[in-house]
Structures are given as structure tokens and as C-alpha cells.
């Protein structure tokens, strides 16, 4: 097998560093032992790796171009080792030009975590909006060190183990020779510096826990489980890093008379059988009647709190009346409906005079001895569609 690194990689002698790297990555993907375990292929992979080690180093390449032996000991053969980062780059890309470059120390400042807090509201507050003051216990920037984590008048110093690089090289022997990998420095945890005199207030973290008060405006139309995002109001990050977000999760308390289905409100009213039979007029309280001084109303005018409902004569128990536009405001505009279900109460206790009048009415209507009639069950929409298709 030829020992010319240019021929091994399949590039010309005037190839650029980028062309050499692309050629190496292409061959490494084809010849890596994890892809081709054949012994002959493994030997070729070793040759490709050694050739790339020579041509990717400007000094070694220049020495070879002047007539040096590319694979002699001391020139840069397998005994000298090569960076495992180059092999990883061949499969996953990345790295600085030339390969094998250190990622450098990582910053102490990191983004803080998001926080979640639960807020209990009434159905009226969820429907029409509300402004609340919340007490939040989160991490804040330490005012003593301004997030630096160092005692006043001091600064971090370079790590003596990694010399400020944040990484240390670990050399291991394998069938490829000596493989050098970079790992975060354990002495400085990859920061490249250490804090010899940490701030006593935050113990070097750059933040402290404290309670603060936030004014939160809940928009009209939120529902149970809705989360309102407050950007930058969460936990402050270590080292004075930016704060995360605060999420306010809405929990709507049950209402004594209204239930919510989407943007519609449902309520039930009870009527005596005489009112259902003859028809009546009644004043129905609306959800707006529950609004408090802290709630956000749709407009600045005093909201309408009642609705004049006309019950038609002959209204049956279980029937519904829909009042358009008196439900819950939508987050996207518009408003749902109020659905009123009618429940007809049948008296269970009658005095003699009431019983006499009812018997007289039954006689007039010919209902003294009614014979029960079986009724067909009510079919839903899909049942009616099935019957239509079946003729």
C-alpha cells in the first residue's frame, strides 16, 4: 500500500485544509471499524488516520513536502497519538478548522430554571379577567456580589490544573494507537477558573432565594389548567445568568349555579308545574353578578347582572333555552352562550283544596285514568343519519 498521505486520502498536493478534512471525513465514515469490522479495512482506516494526522498539521505537512518520511517514528506516526475529536467530526461534523480544537472553558452564567405557581380564581374571574398580586419565592441575583459569586474586591483566578482551558487531555491506548480525548476539568468543573474567596451571602452561586411580589394580569377567557407565561420572571440563573420564565397555572373554583363547557355557561332553574304550564316571566342572575372590585370588566360601564327570561307556556322539564352572547368571553374574541335548562317540579304534598282542584283539572282534561304510552327512544344525529342511508 502506498505511503503517500495525499494518495491515501485521494487529494492533490495543493489541496486546501478544508478539502483534506472533507476527504478524511468521507473515508472515515466508510472505513471506521464500527461500520466495517473487516481486518483489512481496519488497517486501511489506520493509514487514513495517520495520513490525516500529517496533512492536517501545517508543520508536519510542510516537513513531508520537503521530503521527510510521513510515517516514521517522531514524525507524527501512530506512536505520537491523534485527537479523537477528528474521528467524531468525521461522523457528526463540528469543530474548528483543522480539527481537534478545544471547546474552551464554559461560562459560569447560565439561564435559570422556569418556575410554576398555582393561582385559584373564581369562575367569574376566569371569565372576565382579574389582576392579582402574587408572592413568589424564587432565586434572585445576589446584590452583594452582583451575581459574580466572589467576595467584594476579589475575582476568579485561572485554574492551575487546566491553565484556564476548562478541559484536560486524557490519553488512552487502542488498536489505533494513542487516542487523546478532552474532558471537563474536575478541579474547576470546566469553568477554567476557581473562586478562592466566594461571596458569603450566596456561597459563590451568584444568587440567593428571596420572596417578592408580582402583579399578574389574568386575561379574560382563561380556563381551568391554562398557563399564563411571564417571561423572565422565573429563577435567576447561576453566575448572574438570565432568569427563566414564570408560569401561572389557573385553577378555577367550582361555581354553585354555573358550569362551563368551552365558552358556554350552563345553569338549571326549577319551576313549579303551574308556571311551566301557563308560562311565566322571571329575572335570571348572570355570572356578571359575581364580579368583584378586582375583576376586569369587558368595558368601563357597569355590567348587566340579570336577564329577563320568558318561559313559554307548556314548557317541558329538561327543555333548554339558549341566551346568545351571555357565556364566557373567548381569548380570541367573541363570547359564548348561556344555556338554561328547565326543571319542572311536581308537588309531593298537597292540601285537600289543592288536591280537589287538581282532580277537577284532570277530569276536565280527561286525564283521570291515563294509559301510559311507550315512546320510541330519542335518536341521536348519527342514528338519524344511519336510518336515512338505510332507507
UniProtKB/TrEMBL annotation:
Residues 129-211 form the CR-type domain. Pfam families: DnaJ, DnaJ_C, DnaJ_CXXCXGXG. Signal peptide: none annotated. CXXCXGXG motif repeats lie at residues 142-149, 159-166, 185-192, 199-206. Its cofactor is Zn(2+). It comes from the Bacteria. Keywords: Chaperone, Cytoplasm, DNA replication, Metal-binding, Repeat, Stress response, Zinc, Zinc-finger. PROSITE patterns: DNAJ_1, DNAJ_2, ZF_CR. CDD domains: DnaJ, DnaJ_C, DnaJ_zf. Binds 2 Zn(2+) ions per monomer. Zn(2+) 1 binds at residues 142, 145, 199, 202. Residues 293-321, 364-391 are annotated as: Disordered. SUPFAM superfamilies: Chaperone J-domain (SSF46565), DnaJ/Hsp40 cysteine-rich domain (SSF57938), HSP40/DnaJ peptide-binding domain (SSF49493). Belongs to the DnaJ family. The J domain is necessary and sufficient to stimulate DnaK ATPase activity. Zinc center 1 plays an important role in the autonomous, DnaK-independent chaperone activity of DnaJ. Zinc center 2 is essential for interaction with DnaK and for DnaJ activity. Homodimer. PANTHER family: CHAPERONE PROTEIN DNAJ (PTHR43096:SF48), DNAJ HOMOLOG 1, MITOCHONDRIAL-RELATED (PTHR43096). This is Chaperone protein DnaJ. It comes from Nocardioides furvisabuli.
Amino acid at each position: 500500500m502506498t505511503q503517500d498521505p495525499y494518495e491515501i486520502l485521494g487529494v492533490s498536493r495543493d489541496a486546501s485544509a478544508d478539502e483534506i478534512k472533507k476527504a478524511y471525513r468521507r473515508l472515515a465514515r466508510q472505513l471506521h471499524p464500527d461500520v466495517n469490522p473487516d481486518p483489512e479495512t481496519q488497517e486501511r482506516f489506520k493509514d487514513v488516520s495517520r495520513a490525516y494526522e500529517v496533512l492536517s498539521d501545517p508543520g508536519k505537512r510542510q516537513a513531508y513536502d520537503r521530503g521527510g518520511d510521513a510515517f516514521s517514528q517522531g514524525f507524527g506516526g501512530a506512536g505520537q497519538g491523534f485527537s479523537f475529536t477528528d474521528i467524531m467530526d468525521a461522523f457528526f461534523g463540528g469543530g474548528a478548522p483543522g480539527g481537534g480544537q478545544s471547546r474552551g472553558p464554559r461560562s459560569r452564567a447560565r439561564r435559570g430554571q422556569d418556575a410554576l405557581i398555582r393561582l385559584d380564581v373564581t369562575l367569574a374571574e376566569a371569565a372576565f379577567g382579574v389582576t392579582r398580586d402574587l408572592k413568589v419565592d424564587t432565586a434572585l441575583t445576589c446584590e452583594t456580589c452582583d451575581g459574580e459569586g466572589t467576595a467584594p474586591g476579589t475575582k476568579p483566578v485561572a485554574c492551575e490544573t487546566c491553565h484556564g482551558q476548562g478541559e484536560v487531555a486524557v490519553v488512552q491506548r487502542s488498536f489505533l494507537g494513542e487516542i487523546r480525548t478532552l474532558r471537563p476539568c474536575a478541579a474547576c468543573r470546566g469553568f477554567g477558573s476557581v473562586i478562592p474567596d466566594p461571596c458569603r451571602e450566596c456561597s459563590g452561586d451568584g444568587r440567593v432565594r428571596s420572596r417578592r411580589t408580582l402583579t399578574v394580569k389574568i386575561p379574560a377567557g382563561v380556563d381551568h389548567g391554562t398557563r399564563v407565561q411571564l417571561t423572565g420572571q422565573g429563577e435567576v440563573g447561576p453566575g448572574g445568568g438570565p432568569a427563566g420564565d414564570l408560569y401561572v397555572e389557573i385553577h378555577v373554583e367550582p361555581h354553585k349555579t354555573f358550569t362551563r363547557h368551552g365558552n358556554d355557561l350552563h345553569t338549571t332553574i326549577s319551576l313549579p308545574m303551574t308556571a311551566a304550564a301557563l308560562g311565566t316571566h322571571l329575572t335570571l342572575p348572570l355570572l356578571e353578578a359575581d364580579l368583584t372590585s378586582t375583576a376586569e370588566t369587558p368595558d368601563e360601564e357597569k355590567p348587566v347582572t340579570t336577564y329577563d327570561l320568558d318561559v313559554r307556556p307548556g314548557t317541558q322539564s329538561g327543555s333548554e333555552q339558549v341566551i346568545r352572547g351571555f357565556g364566557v368571553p373567548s381569548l380570541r374574541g367573541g363570547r359564548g352562550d348561556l344555556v338554561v335548562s328547565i326543571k319542572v317540579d311536581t308537588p309531593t304534598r298537597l292540601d285537600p283544596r289543592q288536591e280537589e282542584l287538581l282532580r277537577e283539572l284532570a277530569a276536565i282534561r280527561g286525564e283521570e285514568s291515563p294509559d301510559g304510552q311507550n315512546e320510541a327512544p330519542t335518536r341521536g344525529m348519527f342514528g338519524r343519519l344511519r336510518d336515512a342511508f338505510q332507507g
